[in-house]
Batch of 4 targets.
Target 1
Amino acid sequence: MPRRQRAFTLIELTIVALIVAAGAVIAVPAVGHAIAAAQARTASRTLAHDLAMARRAAIDRDGPVVACASRDGLRCTPGAAWHHGWIIQHGRVVLSAHDALPRRVASDASDGRPQIRFGPGGTALGTNTTITFCARNRPGTGHSAVVSGVGRIHGGPAQSAHGASCAASREIRR
């Protein structure tokens, strides 16, 4: 008895391909926003870690250490935002450098400070500062690194005002 072959018709395959394509169109932006939110959270944690390292270096070296926004990873860049990258330096020696963040990630400093200077005693000279990273146009994705005047550093989810200010960032990059 002959066996009958089973196969899909071209119409059935086309319909399945359209359904898969429609699902991808819906899912891809959501995945992109989730990735940007994770990158912002990671950047905030990395900056908080680097700021703590800068504070320890200032104490250990008994001299000022600066954490600042930097576009080239070699020196502080006036007017640069933290998402352009940052460095930690003691005098002219760069102790740590981080590259620019992906385009979907923005940053905002509570007082617009492009740098934080730690004195030999570990205090952060100046006022309290909150540096927030977020996915652009997504205020709920903000994560902040906070530095107090006495040099204490902590991080976590951004307050709603900081998240909103970060997400509204319209700076032209690079």
Target 2
Amino acid sequence: MMKAILKTNNLCKDFKKQKAVNNVSITVRENSIYGLLGPNGAGKSTTLKMITGMLRPTSGKVLFNGHEWNRKDLEQIGALIETPPLYENLSAVENLEVRAKLLNTPKTRIDKVLKMVDLQNTGRKKAGQFSMGMKQRLGIAIALLNSPKLLILDEPTNGLDPIGIQELRSLIRSFPSKGITVILSSHILSEVQLIADDIGIISNGILGYEGQMNKDENLENLFVEVVRKSQEER
């Protein structure tokens, strides 16, 4: 049995009187792709922000590599949440040089991550002139700079055309063989079904389902069933 690289235990996040995340407990296996599914506003991004330390949990725990999460663990976690943090007037290399300096990462890492995301031939072209898919891949390259064991991607295919989605899918699918575990949030069921090893379905802040991805299962029916049940229980 594969060991878990990340677990959340009864994770909760309240915003005033609203419970955005309610006792969510997930288990992410090492060197796998975990798809966190849910409608818009379900609590996916809030959960990921707590895992990356962007938000402090109201209660519950995040466990990373067998111990309670602490800020030092960010050295082993990369994340792309919401829009890629790019300087649009800089090239891909220059964007990575800025981030490498902040992280105190060797410049030799820049060529490696550019090759990983297939942006090694963009030359002096400014990031502002990149396609949406190229910007997403550059955002992922930035998240990979610190050689993370865990990569968190929040709705990475948003706004991409079919070719961009296909390229990103192939890229994400390659990560576990490189020793990188991926947590991927999405509301696009077909995409997650193609690449995920395990899935969790969250709705109204509650995790209604978690299990291994069965490629023959009707994921849409399962998703609708979980979401409807959570709505009935509100």
Target 3
Amino acid sequence: MTKLEEQAAQSLLESKFITENQFEEITVYRNRNIFSLHAELKFFLYLSVLLFTSGIGILIYQNIDTIGHIVILAILLVVIVGCFYYCFKNSKGFQKTETIFDSPVLEYLVLAATILTCIFIGYLQFQYEAFGTHYGLATLIPTLISFFCAYYFDNKSVLTIAITGLAAYVGISATPQDLLRNNFYTSQNLTYSAILLGGILIVWTIYSSKIALKTHFKLLYLTFALHLISIASISGLTDYHNNSLWMLFVVVLAGSAYYFYKISYELKAISLYVFMIIYAYIGFNIVVFRIFEFVNFSDIWMLFILILPVYFIGSIVIFIKLIKNFNKEIAA
């Protein structure tokens, strides 16, 4: 038993929340050093799904000429149907509240079936143009299937795929390479689309809370909304081709920061709080530098260089204090 656990148990005893016998039982139990493998097993299940679906993709790529397109599609379809048959047969059906399944295998079979469905439809469109020139349908249909599976089987991993597919459908794609090359958005319209999609996700979480529909999905939706709105706003702030609208993105980013500040306390979600601070800080610095464009630094550039290290050190100190205060307030 660790020192912190010993102190916690002793504190409960001194406060008379537990008896001497209960304290001794807790001590004996913790000294056995028993720990759960639940998280580790779920991780390996998740990893096995990723390896399996990746293996399917590699198999298709390496043997495309020898196996044949029809055979590959047929094998994929059989595996997908088999997975969904097992999932529907053993699931508890749709429920508005959070659903706990008896076997964790079901959760990962749903994930595997959904990923394979996306591969199947994408392959069908790429090879045979099943949807003709309506390429968006090849993204929209897997997205709708993913949303259905996410709500029917209560699966957050599948919901992540669904939201990502929805973003891809409206033309939004975010990869590390895009961010490094500063081409996260290829046009101003995509910036507005990202902000609009983020707003829609927020509205949906509010509506879902009112009708008590899968309220535990709220944090996932809000995480996507935070990143979409914030990154799009920062992208708009750094777009010097459209200087007339940069103040609009300041208002959007400020409004987003305020909303996620409030909701992070409501949900006690430190992830939202941390990213909100980071995005707000980046936006604030961009605004400051844009304002400084109109200032002549020829006379005060030495003072500016001296102040800059103090500013960044102070920012780090304030960031740490904000996180500490947040943890104290949500624990109270």
Target 4
Amino acid sequence: MISRKLWNSIWPPLVAVILFLLIWQGATTLFHIEKWILPSPVDIGRQSVAEAASLWEHTLATLRLMLLGFAIGTLFGLVVAFVLHLVPFLKSSLYPLLILSQNVPTIALAPLLMIWFGFGILPKIIVITLVCFFPVAVAAMDGLTRTDRVMLNYMKMIGASRGEIFRKLEVPFALPAMLSGVKISATYSVMGAVIAEWIGADKGIGYYMMLQKSSFRTDNIFVAIVIIVAISLMMFACIALLEKWLIRYKPEK
């Protein structure tokens, strides 16, 4: 059974989505909009059933690529955050460059990565890693700097080493911020995988979208978009559950 608290948080957006779909369906029917311009939700649902076998294969390919890139990007982001936090000189030197690196669009880097590393899986993993690591690194560094000063001074007074302070105080205190960054990274990883597949792939949701664009199959493109949104929501929900399991204590507001 769904608890009342959970139901109260679910029903407002659920009603909004249902109303949006009803308005969409009514508009396409009332104004006789061509399917190749804007298919109705019913058309998209029918097409998803018709293309189920092919879509499942492409979805699995995207999931494998996305999960691998997400894991590497998250780990890389945490390592960068930890190193920059523990070595202040590196943080003051490299943090501005870290910010500047995000001003280069990923879609612009992808063709260069294909030229440098070929059309295998490596450039695709690099694209997803570049997309994922930044939110994790920034959130982790921000969380590490917000450690409770009273507890920090207390641990220093009792003679705790720098490593003990980092492991037993700073990392646990920064865990909520880290997981917030991981949630953002999880949703970005799907976008990164699709962008990587746009540049060069022989399967995956991004590759499927490019094929349908060439055929002007707008309905199939919408099906692919629905799948991308569903994967993003699934990833976000998984990290949210992990956060709920890891962080048992939350102070009263």
